[in-house]
Amino acid sequence: MKRLLAALLFTFVAAAQAAHPGPATLDEALAQGKREQKPVMVDFQAVWCYSCYFMASHVLNGKEWNDLNTKVVFYEADADKPADKAWMQKLNVHFLPTYVLIGPDGEELGRILAERPRATFYTEVAGILSGDARLSKQKADAAKGSMAAVADVLDTYQLRYQGTEGMAWFDSLPAMVRNVSDKDKRVALAKQRLLLLQAKDKKDDQGIVDAAGRVLAGNIGCDRPYVLDDLIEASAKQQADERRRLLAPQEAPYKQYLDTQVFTASPACADQRSAVLTAADLDAALGDHDGEQAVLRKAIDLSREKLHGDLRSDRNLADNLRVYLVRAKAGEELDTLEKQLIAAYPEDYVYNYRYGRRLVENGKPAEGLPYLDAAAKKAYGANRITVASFQVKALRALHRDDEARQRVAETVAAEGKAFPEQTKKLQESLTATAG
């Protein structure tokens, strides 16, 4: 009897879902939001996005998620599909995942970048849905003299990757407001973050070093790995002694960050991969090979401990383990894991592609090509071009140039119109020097 009731319930739910499918495009979602007077929540993600794995497994489910979906029109945007990629450019989305909430009137209500712990995410979403995060409201409050609102406006521009626009707005404030706001710690930090964005846009290494150093001196929470990574990368051309003097002061605060917010039973920061890799990069930049390997092995051991041998139990953690092994140059362990990941996640192209690509890059084109061919059968959009580029590299290394040309022609015919820049590079790979 219970089985019969369960079957009937499943049939009813399936029929209801079929009768009311979700929006097929973001334009449809926006139209539905306007019609129903609901905000639209856009989840910009991709099948290769490890942070998206975390959100899918740990956050976008359960009662809170079900309740949220009654309040919004939800649309999952795929970064590898042409129409969704165009919306990423229109909304200036640079980071996956990014969650953008848009009101029925078309105004952006706010956005969330990167993965979040469950409680943090739903608290932030509730704040955005209240309307207080709208840029127009923040600016109106700032005009009344609210320093908190000035900081909110600058933070919103930072989330939108609009450093120049944000600083232009700040410079438009009355001198009296600007002078007072400079004494506010939140405003001062928000300004430095916008200056960092501007320097990155200009590829100004010294500007990045200066701004990143000032930002790192502030309380930036879970963003610390990203800013430190900017500092490490921008200082790469400096003399070794000068670079050590610049980076050495970051060791102690970053270790404290790892110990208190990452390597704990309940991490406050969800993006453990960036935290670990930045720690390894800092050790490498300071010439501490033992420290670099130690932090990677700690992350590897903790990941294995939490997975309990089940790679499907947490895809984010499983993929983090793969990357830690790559970074540690643990070849044999990595070979074993990547084959296990292919078996554990056969539904998409990602792990066949990554393993095949690594084999080709390591001078084993004959071994890598079958994995790339398997990946190509599941690839689509922009990722189809990515897979094809390594198929071509493998085929040319094997002197199978006719097959390489055929692969390029097929891919260009299917995806060339939507992704002209990528397909141009793919075509150019036919005449590049074979690796």
Automatic annotation (TrEMBL):
**Which PROSITE patterns does the record associate with it?**
THIOREDOXIN_2
Q: What positions does the domain Thioredoxin occupy?
A: 1-130
Please give the InterPro entries that the UniProt record associates with this protein: Thioredoxin-like_sf (IPR036249), Thioredoxin_domain (IPR013766)
Which protein, by its recorded name, is this?
A: Thioredoxin domain-containing protein
PANTHER family reported for this sequence: THIOL:DISULFIDE INTERCHANGE PROTEIN DSBD (PTHR32234)
Signal peptide, first to last residue:
1-18
Recorded hits in Pfam families, A to Z, give: Thioredoxin_7
> Would the keyword Signal turn up in this protein's UniProt record?
yes
Keywords noted in UniProt = Signal
| Species in which this protein is naturally found | Luteibacter jiangsuensis
Q: Does the keyword Iron-sulfur apply?
A: no
